[in-house]
Amino acid sequence: MARKSFLLRIEKQLYDDIESWAQQEMRSVNGQIEYILRQAALKYRSKGQILDVRATQKTQKMQNESGETSD
User: Which of 6, 30, 9, 3 is nearest to 18 (CA)?
Assistant: First the structure.
């Protein structure tokens, strides 16, 4: 699985809470944040609320290149 690195800025209290939670579950802070996000995304996806943005962008690009509009 490819991994993407990015900078995340959060309040110190939230970081401290996640750090404590991570220690309780024997994870790194990074691993805990990834776990939380993965669980939220799975829940969101199961409700059918996650769109494949890349597919939408590709379709829009193809329409723009062919002169079609999405009106």
Answer: 30
> What gap in Å lies between CA 71 and CA 60, rounded to an integer?
12
Alpha-carbon distance 34 to 22, whole Å?
A: 11
pLDDT in tens, 59-70: 666 667 777 655
The total of structural domains in the chain comes to 1
pTM over 0.70: no
**How many CA atoms lie within 13 Å of 23's alpha carbon, on the beta-carbon side?**
5
Residue 18 falls inside a structural domain: yes
